[in-house]
Amino acid sequence: MMEDIGGDDDVEIPLPNATSNVLKKILEYCEYHKDELAPASEDESDRIKRTTDISDWDQRFLSVDQEMLFEIILAANYLDIRPLLDIGCKTVANMIKGKTPEEIRRTFNIQNDFTPEEEDQIRRENQWAEDR
């Protein structure tokens, strides 16, 4: 992002919909990880390992309510902070892993808009996925 604005230190960066609390969290993350060098070129296996392993500090950092977690993910995406975006998404994936659709709906407060008949049809069509 800084390359896009020509490296001028006095340029304002618009942050739509980012609250001061979210920005404080982003700054806290950046301050903690400031001495970690970003790899010049990262192959896919390195990126997968980095996002699979979430450090204890990062886990504690992302132990926030869902609204804050999603706002951090959106801001990290907008600001192109790839490591924070990756661990944020991995945290959400861990919240989903091993849960039934009903448990996922409860976790994320998602209303079920399928009729029982539609649910049965979807289960039949995707039986192969449940047989794993």
Automatic annotation (TrEMBL):
<protein>
    <recommendedName>
        <fullName>E3 ubiquitin ligase complex SCF subunit</fullName>
    </recommendedName>
</protein>
<dbReference type="Pfam" id="PF01466">
    <property type="entry name" value="Skp1"/>
</dbReference>
<comment type="similarity">
    <text>Belongs to the SKP1 family.</text>
</comment>
<dbReference type="InterPro" id="IPR016072">
    <property type="entry name" value="Skp1_comp_dimer"/>
</dbReference>
<dbReference type="Pfam" id="PF03931">
    <property type="entry name" value="Skp1_POZ"/>
</dbReference>
<dbReference type="InterPro" id="IPR011333">
    <property type="entry name" value="SKP1/BTB/POZ_sf"/>
</dbReference>
<dbReference type="InterPro" id="IPR016073">
    <property type="entry name" value="Skp1_comp_POZ"/>
</dbReference>
<feature type="domain" description="SKP1 component dimerisation">
    <location>
        <begin position="83"/>
        <end position="129"/>
    </location>
</feature>
<keyword id="KW-0833">Ubl conjugation pathway</keyword>
<dbReference type="InterPro" id="IPR016897">
    <property type="entry name" value="SKP1"/>
</dbReference>
<comment type="function">
    <text>Essential component of the SCF (SKP1-CUL1-F-box protein) E3 ubiquitin ligase complexes, which mediate the ubiquitination and subsequent proteasomal degradation of target proteins.</text>
</comment>
<comment type="subunit">
    <text>Component of the SCF (SKP1-CUL1-F-box protein) E3 ubiquitin ligase complexes.</text>
</comment>
<comment type="pathway">
    <text>Protein modification; protein ubiquitination.</text>
</comment>
<dbReference type="InterPro" id="IPR036296">
    <property type="entry name" value="SKP1-like_dim_sf"/>
</dbReference>
<feature type="domain" description="SKP1 component POZ">
    <location>
        <begin position="1"/>
        <end position="35"/>
    </location>
</feature>
<dbReference type="GO" id="GO:0006511">
    <property type="term" value="P:ubiquitin-dependent protein catabolic process"/>
</dbReference>
<dbReference type="InterPro" id="IPR001232">
    <property type="entry name" value="SKP1-like"/>
</dbReference>
